[in-house]
Amino acid sequence: MKPTFLALTLLAAGCSAAGAPRSRQENPAAGPDAKSSTPTNAQQGAEWDELLRKLQEQYQVSEQQKTAQADEHYKLAERYFQATDFEKAELECEKALRLNPDHAAAHALYLEVQFILKRRTTGPVAGEYEKYFRQAIAQHQQVLLEIDDAYNRGVRAFNLGEYDKAEREFRMILNYLKWLPASVEFGDRQRQTVAMLEKTRAAAKTKSIDEEKARRAAVEEEKMRDELKRLYEQKRELELLFGQAQMFFENEQFERCIEICDKILFINPNLGTVREMKDVSHRLVHDREHRDNLRGYVEEWKRTFERVELNAVVQAVELVFPDMAVWNEIRRRQPKGLQEFKEEISEDDAKIVEKLKNTPITLEQNAPLTVVVDYIREFSGLNFVIDTKAIPKPDEEQITIKVQNIVLDGALRLMLSSKQMVHYVEGGVVIITKVETLKKKVRLELYDVQDLTYGLQDFPGVEITLTQDALGTTTQAEEGPKQQFTGEALADLIKKSIHKSEWEESDGKSIKFNNGLLIVSNTIEVHKALRKFLSDLRASTGILVSVETRFLSVEDTFLQQVGMDFRDADLLAPGTVNPRAQGMLQLDDINPSFVINPAFVDPTGANPFNATGSGTQASSSAGITGQFGQSVTRNMGARIQNIMTNDFLVQKFFGQALFPVGGATLQYTLLDDISVEMIMRLVSRSQRSHVLTAPKMTLFNTQRGNIRISNQFAYIKDFDVQVATGAVIADPVPDVVSDGITLDVRPIVSADRKYITIELRPTVASLFPPPPNVFGILISLQASTQNPVSQAQPVKIETPILNIQRLRTTAVVPDRGTLLIGGLTVYFEEDAESSIPVWRNIPILGNLGSEKIKGAQKKQLLTILKGRIIIPDEEERRKFD
Fold it and tell me: Which residues fall within 8 angstroms of residue 330, CB to CB, at 6 or more apart?
């Protein structure tokens, strides 16, 4: 009876706990009665209602807390009751009842503990106990019904194979039974439930295993299908790739064939035919590259010599542009800096600009600016902002416009132009402002001015002159100024020339030069003026001038020489006499190279004038010689010879104009007792020459430059004599002499670009005689002692002769014109005759034994100057436009 009683009390406690909130919620029902006593004033009634609501909420919160604490004390009392510590159980029940007097379970446990402790007997409380007992019996039956219903649901779920649902139902029953007191009914149901739970778990495990097997089978089947599909697709791909490889192989595109073969082998490395095709393609590629390399080598060889031959062709013009295709590519290059004043805008702003240019709109407005802008904003969906700093009262700006089907950008321009307003896009917004404000907007731009700030270096030429302190020649260089134009000077010039009042740094406007770039921050108007200024400056500084100086030498020379001499036959060898005229001596008195002797000498060979007495002289013999007499030898000698080798004018003509070489020389010799030798000389020469030396140079306007083509010749100009005891040593001192052409010019183009002022310094120097021949002075060095150790040393001090033609002038030449700036005319006529007096007057016979020389030299040296202005922009337009 005791377990049944305990179960009934617990069920009663559970039902009472469930119903407790309802009883507590009935307490606020007294609210309307309370409200009847509130003041009639509306404001005071509202305050009282709010106060009562707060008190009710606090009361409900405190009641819930008490109920929770009472449940905790009841659970603790149950544990003490199970442990047969009835006094502590009684104490905990009392605490629970103090917190919640309506706690039925606590009441039942409290009564049972008091009966056990014999602190309560039958009386009025027994009726109350009977009441709780009947209530517990009803609740017990309700629990049994719920357990049976849950058990039936679990069985049905088990039969349907819904093992998870069945397990949840059985677990719920066991959780119920765990908190209920032990009884026969509960024990039977618990055992049935446990058995069904185990059965359900086993069935669920079996089902899970079957499902896992089925899932694995499905997965394996899906894998097999995927593998078959993959193999089929791979087969198709391999067939396609193999077809492409075969096609590229047949078309001799072996590189592509190798790439396709690599893809095939990556997919399936076991295809031997593909690997063989790849190897064959590699070999064919190598063979073709070898042929191409050989062909390319031959082509490059031919092209190299074609370029050499092309370079041998003289360029006729000073400036040559590349082909049209190459120059069109070069034209696309743009310099750093402002380009048509178009800024780089963001992607969002570019979309807005594109929408403004492509959105058509119809406007018919006669309203303030704000109203029109609002309408356009709603129509286009774009953000429009009016710059109130520039337009302080936009409502007073009346806009009148009537257009149809016009793009939005054009409509804005028409609408705002009459009010001196503009619009621009910045930061995703279309801003409307005044024209003056936009012009004052500061922009930062870069300008590349390296071509303007680069200082043109002057290159003065060398001056070929004769030195005053030496026997040789030297070259002396002239110093020339170096013109410079710095970036800082350019920045200062811009500040002083362009919008002087627009360079206030307080407004964010500045100009700085750094590493060849001008960094300018200013308004668009200033940028435009600056761009024009730099363009004009480049137009004047980027001018080239081609200067050509022509040294033209024209010469016409004529020479005629006719003469006849009578001479004796020459000696066979030095120191011997003519074998045809034995005993004849040389007659020195006829040879003008020696001192004239007054008489003949003894034919025996005794020559009083010869120190050796041999009777021989190193001179030519007489022209007519003979021997007479038998016992006494007599000789006769005569000579007719016209010798002009020492004539100054004749030799000057021969050396300067023409030398008498060539022509005809006739000789007749008679050898007998009387020997006669006749020599006739006939020469006629003429020569015409036209020598042009034209150095040419192209340089910048106002730049000084030079061109020099010269030869250098080393010679001994002196000796340093080292004197020792009884010996002298000569140490040579070498030097270098130069000859050739030197052109030093500085062109200055006029402001109208029509004329060129040229400072000209041409020089033409030539050595005489031409190297390696050189004039010299031969001297002998010997020690001054009586017994010198070394013999006399002959030394030669060389003294080259330098012929210089020099011009120093400043001339003005028209563009592409020529100017004769100097010249030298030489006229040299020679008419010489050598003959025998009186005999020369005999007709015809007078020509025998005479010589006549006639010659004339006509020479003119001209210096012609030609200049050409080269403006690259004009040359470009002339060639391509």
Answer: 322
Provide the percentage of residues in the chain whose pLDDT is more than 70: 73
Q: Is the dihedral of CA 601, 606, 611, 617 positive or negative?
A: positive
Q: Which helix (H) or strand (E) holds 196?
A: helix 184-250
Q: Please write down the HEC assignment for all residues of 455-490.
A: CCCCCCCEEEEECCCCCCEEEEECCCCCCCCCHHHH
SS (H, E, C) 651-687: HHHHHHCCCCCCCEEEEEEECCCEEEEEEEEEEEEEE
pLDDT of 511 higher than 80 = yes
Whether pLDDT at 28 is above 50: no
Q: Which residues on neighbouring strands pair with residue 683, listed in sequence order?
A: 561
Q: Would you say how long the chain is, in residues? A: 881
Phi, psi of 686 (to 5 degrees): -140, 150
Cα distance between residue 687 and residue 670, in whole Å:
38
Q: Tell me how far apart the alpha carbons of residues 848 and 835 are, in angstroms, rounded to a whole number.
A: 8
Judge contact between 603 and 714, C-beta under 8 A. no
CA distance 71 to 64: 11
pLDDT at 143 over 50: yes
Burial of 473 (0-12, 13-18, 19+ CB in 10 A): buried
| Residue reference for tokens 């030798």 | 677
Residue 586 and residue 596 in contact, taking contact as beta carbons nearer than 8 Å: no
DSSP states of 380-435: H---EEE-TTT-S-GGG-EEEEEEEEEEHHHHHHHHHHTTTEEEEEETTEEEEEEH
Angle between helix axes 184-250 and 272-312 (nearest 10 degrees) is: 50
Alpha carbon dihedral 158, 164, 167, 169, in 10-degree steps, equals -90
What does the alpha-carbon distance between residue 298 and residue 339 come to, in Å, rounded to a whole number?
Answer: 48
Q: Is the pTM of this model over 0.85?
A: no
761-768 average pLDDT score: 83
User: Measured on CA atoms in the order 762, 768, 772, 777, is the torsion positive or negative?
Assistant: negative
pLDDT in tens, 818-839: 888 877 788 888 887 877 787 7
**E strand segments, 507-618:** 510-514, 517-522, 544-567
According to DSSP, residue 640 is labeled B
Q: Pick from 707, 703, 806, 706: which is nearest to 746 by CA?
A: 703
Mean pLDDT (the chain, rounded) = 75
In the DSSP assignment, the letter for residue 606 is: -
How many CA atoms within 13 Å lie on the side-chain side of 206? Answer: 10
Residue 465, beta-bridge partner list:
474
Tokens representing 351?
């979309």
Q: Which long-range contacts (CB under 8 A, 24 or more apart) does 320-323 make?
A: 321/875, 321/876, 321/879, 321/880
Q: Report the share of the chain in percent with pLDDT over 90.
A: 4
Residue of 3, 2, 14, 4 lying closest to 139 (CA atoms): 14
Using CA atoms, how far apart are residues 798 and 719, in angstroms rounded to an integer? 11
Q: What's the Rg (C-alpha) of the chain? A: 67
Instruction: Using alpha carbons only, give the angle 40, 42, 48 rounded to the nearest 5 degrees.
Output: 85
Please tell me the distance from the alpha carbon of residue 836 to that of residue 848, in angstroms, as a whole number: 9
- Residue 137, both tokens: 């019996």
Phi-psi sector, 679: left (phi>0), alpha (psi -120 to 50), beta? beta
**Residue-wise pLDDT tens digits, 418-475:** 888 888 888 889 989 888 777 777 778 888 887 777 767 777 877 776 554 444 444 4
**Domain chopping of the chain, boundaries:** 1-35+42-120
The pLDDT of residue 283 is 92
Q: Measured in Å, how far apart are the chain's first and last C-alpha atoms?
A: 127
Q: Are 865 and 547 in contact (CB under 8 A)?
A: yes
Q: What is the mean predicted confidence (pLDDT) over 68-75?
A: 83
